[in-house]
Amino acid sequence: xxxxxxIFIVFIVVVIIVAVLAGYYSLAHxxxxxxxxxxxxxxxxxxxxxxxxxxxxxxxxxKSTNISKWYENYPDFLNKLDEVKTVENTRKYYIREMMYYxxxxxxxxxxxxxxxxxDLIIAYTxxxxxxxxxxxxxxxxxxxxxxxxxxxxxxxxxxxxRGDLRAKNPEFAKLLSQQxxxxxxxxxx
Length: 189
Known about the structure:
Shape: elongated
Number of helices: 5
Distance between the termini: 59 Å
Helix content: over 70%
């Protein structure tokens, strides 16, 4: 009877160890999946921000050719910039999720760089709104071009740092690219 109890206890211990290891690896797999899924979602929102900015920029840059149309469209410019901020805040949510689900230092560092970029984009949006307001009120002396250009340079520098990080690990870059491809192919959104 005692031998059967020892075998049963060993069996239970083995089952528990296997269950714990399986759970650990399943959790790691899930976190890795969530990281890349959140990357895909933040990239999708990042593309929406870029499209909205392009739309506002193209429309607002024609003031010299059609002043009355520019003033007529001014409220639309501000609405689009508000939409940029809303979409960028959604993107920031997915970036925070990426930080939470990161399983490596590289993933966490990349998500931190994305978070910094998101903060810079919101700052740039606010500066762009100030620029439009100054133009609308014919008071361009209030435009802080140093801060405006500095924000643009900071965005470029951050983008270069992310490129360097991707270049250091081609497998990581490949996984990120696959997520972006799913967006451009309109799959899994």
